[in-house]
Amino acid sequence: MDNSVAIGRAQARYVRCIDDGSLDDWPGFFTEDCRYRVTTADNHRRGLPAGLIWADTKGMLHDRVSALREANIYEPHSYRHMLGQPAILAESGGEVESETSFLVLRITGGGPTDVFASGRYVDRYVVRDGEALLRERVVVCDSSEIDTLLALPL
Amino acid sequence: MDRLSGTTAGQARDRTWPRSLTQVPYWAFQDEAVYRAEQERLFHGPYWSYLCLEAELAKPGDFCATFIGEQPVLVTRDVDGEVYAFENRCAHRGALIAMADHGHARDFTCVYHAWTYNLQGDLTAVAFAEGIGGKGGMPPEFCMAKHGPRKLRLAVVHGLVFGSLSNEVPDIEEYLGEEILDRIDRVLGGRRPVVLGRFTQMLPNNWKLYVENVKDSYHASILHLFFTTFGINRLSQRGGIIVDSSGGHHVSYSAIDRSAAASTEYSEQRIRSDSEYRLADPSLLEGFSEVGDDITLQILSVFPGFVLQQIQNSVAVRQILPRSVERTKLNWTYLGFESDTEEQRLVRLKQANLVGPAGYVSMEDGGIGGFVQRGIAGASGEYATVQMGGESAASSESRVTEASVRGFWKAYRGAMGYDLADSPPDDTRPGRHRRARVSRAGREDA
């Protein structure tokens, strides 16, 4: 199968998992050996390494989910991700580098729908047997400002 | 310097402030006139505001665009190697002189009419000053030296750059006092910080609610459940609260008690056996002694809006900037040090998960101020009560106290120039458990 089709499918399922499904399934979109980071365009451009969320193991992704469920306190809210088409930047062997624009709306309680974040996923996928898994995802938010807090992953 | 006239504002309205430090009137978080008076009396007044890190001005020509309260400010390093700060506002028509947050420049040229300033903030060129063909231009008596943005007073403390718009502000050593200086020195002294990342959190609340939150050691183990939920036993922690004599600055700290840890391996202590939950990757909390002592947490604040944080090996500075009565900009700068090993750098990046807008132990603070702001709507005549640990604003060995919150209000009400008044006792205040029913027969009070 074409890599862009496999990545497109994986990303559609990824956002459905966060927006409408169970967050417990979210780490399943990553390979066992993986990295995930949320940062801003300014930090990314300057090569500053810290993240709002920073994980270099799948265990850390599971810990994010269980902390949100069991420990952290925040007003209930949900996201609606709108994704652009993935741009395939490099392919070699089973590894694919791609970038995809995103827009995330946040719906807080019964209240308003707000534009929460826009940006791009800078990804490294591993594609095997038509299935694409994330080896690395850097979520680069366009704005340097986060409104109130970032609980659910992007 | 002559133009830094200090406090010129009159007394903030005809409000009075409760004499007891245990009462905080809710109107202080709601009133537009209070907000305006704060800009004059606190942020333009005889106080030091954090501007940026010296490390962000490594080379001559580097600059940071930052703020004192709402006021935009440029901080630069000139070719003489010194740090300078001046208003980020063109002396001509008031446009921003520089728009990038951080950058490098030989000089600054206002985009509007190309008035040019050097790195010390002196006006050096006015476009078409001589006119064209002998016509137009500035009047001959125009003197560039008399036109320029106001220059700030500056102080650098262990790489932290503070500025003031007032000539009346005391020297920074006197302002901070020995105890606060010692605790800044503990984290930053003798080390060269490296910026690991910068993040901005927009808070849906008055800036003072965030300051209170920083100073409130009482809430930490109650609101922030990350450590307790995951059974991370932080052992018997010794620590305390330091409140400086002005009340405005504070330090809260705690340390591992190694005598308690000695009986069992610390790594085994970390997972409470009866806890249902545990971290899938406990390496998050595998750190190192930050500066060779046992202190794993030190939160330090400087009046009015600066925080230096060490939470395990997550070191950061926070700049609290009011944006409106109900909106606050919180700038986080995550730090490492040039002396860090690769492993230590990795620990810092991992432990940054604890703090910031998505932090395991700080994300709640992004929401709680908004809950208070919404909760106190319609209650401008009521008071918050901060009685935990007594009525004073003194240092203590217990962290189950609101002493440093009271300290903030002690410094604040003094700075704002409020007259103090005894507030009415609770039972004379209206609206307590009175009901009225209206029926078809008419109104009857119950």
Automatic annotation (TrEMBL), chain A:
It comes from the Bacteria. Coiled coil: none annotated. The keyword Endoplasmic reticulum does not apply. GO terms for molecular function: dioxygenase activity. CDD domains: ring_hydroxylating_dioxygenases_beta. Keywords: Dioxygenase, Oxidoreductase. Pfam families: SnoaL_4. Residues 5-132 form the SnoaL-like domain. Belongs to the bacterial ring-hydroxylating dioxygenase beta subunit family. This is Aromatic-ring-hydroxylating dioxygenase subunit beta. It comes from Amycolatopsis acidiphila. The lineage of its organism: Bacteria, Bacillati, Actinomycetota, Actinomycetes, Pseudonocardiales.
From TrEMBL, chain B:
This is Rieske 2Fe-2S domain-containing protein. Keywords: 2Fe-2S, Iron, Iron-sulfur, Metal-binding, Oxidoreductase. Residues 49-163 form the Rieske domain. Residues 419-446 are annotated as: Disordered. The keyword Chaperone does not apply. GO terms for molecular function: 2 iron, 2 sulfur cluster binding; iron ion binding; monooxygenase activity; oxidoreductase activity, acting on paired donors, with incorporation or reduction of molecular oxygen. Residues 431-440 have a biased composition (Basic residues). It comes from the Bacteria. It holds the Pfam family Ring_hydroxyl_A. The keyword Iron-sulfur applies. Belongs to the bacterial ring-hydroxylating dioxygenase alpha subunit family.
